[in-house]
Write a structure and sequence with these properties.
heterodimer; A: 264 residues; mainly alpha; 8 helices; globular; B: 231 residues; alpha/beta; six-stranded mixed sheet; three-stranded antiparallel sheet; 27% strand
Chain lengths: 264, 231
């Protein structure tokens, strides 16, 4: 059943997400293809410069659009499919609340990942094509040498916790939204507004707890300018706190979905 | 044999009591009218039975089990809301039902769609309100379920469509299943009902065999309903 739920989540969201990501990648490639050679002996024609400027503007606009719209797609899928009128169908399927939540977490995570990857591919294509066309744009040899040096010098536990924290943080972004929507849905009126209020309140509580814990355990403050915020200890603490919040949000969302569902 | 049972069921929304200490037992193979004016608690009762709301107190049993994944697999529910996803075609929604309900009869659904000349490739979002209502009914009745809950299936449709809907219900439900039809349009449904349950202010005030009731009162069910619920 989980596979089927995920299939329909993807079918619903990919209709908008994939064309947007495809456009992002194409515009990235176009930005690389249209880049004028500013170092050439003769200045590039104005029309080429204007065209490139327009495409670059579109690339930046798409970067913002993909970030925002992927978030909106994930939010609307959860709200419409479970808490809106479609919920009358979803919650009368022979499927448990646990399965619904797992499906939304997996599909939402994959959708965020697709949006992120489309950005990497788009800007990657832009750079590769631009360098191929205008050879003197970037000294690739130097970039690779610096990158290699960075990788050699990087501390393995640090790298592991950096990646883990990034993955846990992405999940936190997702589950916090779901939890806020379930909280807002408990309200008799203004459910959407109350979901926003819930999100803000949760974020404030979250930030306060993180700040207090960081002071207690590491003796540092998030807002201190002298803090070495990239220390391994700080990273581990951030990962642990993020995971604790994730567990709390998952349990809270599941509890509300399973015990306090009020479709009106 | 009892297939649906409510024991001391109460549901409150804040201070407002929607259902108050309701007790009810319904048997398989019957068509039961859940009748009452607007706000009498009909929809709340059906939503509770489908697990869309949680009761404040009391118990609900469907085929001996409390509302759960297991009961959902034997209950076919037609809500009073338009629950169909706009982006799907008729073909998509049939595939969806096949994926999730093992008792869904595709042939039966296709026959009913064919009778109404509904194009399977048409998007649900492009359909008229009336056609969407018919598709919802077809999907609900195409299941070989043990219990059917039909919440206001004929409200908001023209008289010709009402006839079609009632014919569809009568000719497609499983003979050994329980069919609960919630409505306040008594005259249209009274000929198909075996039993009537009257709800007023969240309480069951009558549960009787329709034939016996009509004979006792010397008037139609609709006439009796109007008398009981006269303002």
């Amino acid at each position: 059943m989980l596979g089927r739920l995920i299939k329909y989540d993807f079918k619903s969201t990919f209709r908008s997400l994939l064309p947007l990501c495809a456009a992002f990648i194409v515009v990235g490639a176009l930005a690389g293809l249209s880049i004028p050679d500013f170092d050439a002996k003769t200045a590039p024609p104005t029309v080429i410069v204007v065209l490139w400027g327009t495409i670059m503007f579109a690339l930046v606009a798409l970067t913002v659009a993909v970030s925002i719209i992927s978030m909106i797609i994930v939010i609307t899928r959860f709200y419409k499919n479970l808490l809106g009128s479609e919920g009358y169908l979803s919650f009368t399927l022979p499927v448990s609340a646990k399965m619904h939540l797992t499906s939304k977490c997996i599909s939402g995570y994959v959708e965020f990942a697709i949006a992120f990857l489309s950005g990497i591919i788009s800007y990657g294509l832009f750079l590769l094509i631009a360098v191929a066309r205008v050879g003197n744009l970037i000294n690739f040899k130097k970039v690779f040498e610096e990158l290699a040096a960075l990788i050699v010098n990087v501390d393995a536990p640090y790298a592991v916790f950096f990646i883990l924290t990034a993955l846990a943080g992405t999940f936190q972004a997702l589950i916090k939204i779901y939890f806020s929507m379930m909280l807002g849905h408990q309200s008799e009126d203004h459910k959407i507004l109350m979901s926003f209020v819930g999100y803000i309140v949760i974020s404030i509580i979250e930030a306060t707890i993180e700040h207090i814990i960081s002071i207690i355990f590491l003796g540092v403050s998030f807002i201190s300018e002298t803090t070495d915020v990239v220390s391994l200890g700080y990273l581990i603490m951030t990962f642990v706190i993020t995971m604790i919040f994730n567990i709390v949000y998952v349990i809270g969302t599941y509890y509300l979905m399973n015990n306090k569902l009020n479709l009106e | 044999m009892s297939i649906f049972e409510l024991r001391c069921l109460t549901k409150s929304y804040g201070k407002k009591v929607a259902l108050n200490n309701v007790g009810l037992t319904l048997e398989a193979g019957r068509i039961v009218g859940l009748l009452g004016p607007n706000g009498s608690g009909k929809t709340t009762l059906i939503k509770l039975a489908n697990g869309l709301l949680r009761q404040t107190e009391g118990m609900i049993f469907i085929d001996g089990k409390e509302p759960s994944t297991e009961t959902k697999s034997i209950v076919s529910y037609l809500p009073d809301k338009d629950f169909l996803p706009d982006w799907m075609t008729v073909k998509d929604i049939i595939a969806y039902y096949v994926d999730f309900y093992s008792d869904f009869d595709t042939e039966r659904a296709k026959t009913m769609l064919g009778n109404l000349n509904i194009d399977e490739n048409m998007r649900l979002g492009k359909m008229s309100k009336g056609t969407r209502e018919k598709v919802r009914l077809i999907l609900t009745m195409a299941r070989r379920a043990k219990v059917y809950f039909l919440d206001e299936p004929i409200a908001g449709v023209d008289p010709a469509a009402r006839d079609y809907i009632l014919r569809t219900i009568i000719s497609n439900y499983e003979p050994d299943a329980l069919v609960v039809i919630s409505t306040h349009l008594i005259a249209d449904v009274e000929n198909v009902l075996d039993e009537a349950v009257f709800l007023r202010n969240g309480e069951v005030i009558l549960h009787k065999n329709v034939e016996e009731l009509v004979e006792e009162q010397g008037k139609s069910l609709d006439g009796y309903f109007r008398e009981v619920f006269a303002c």
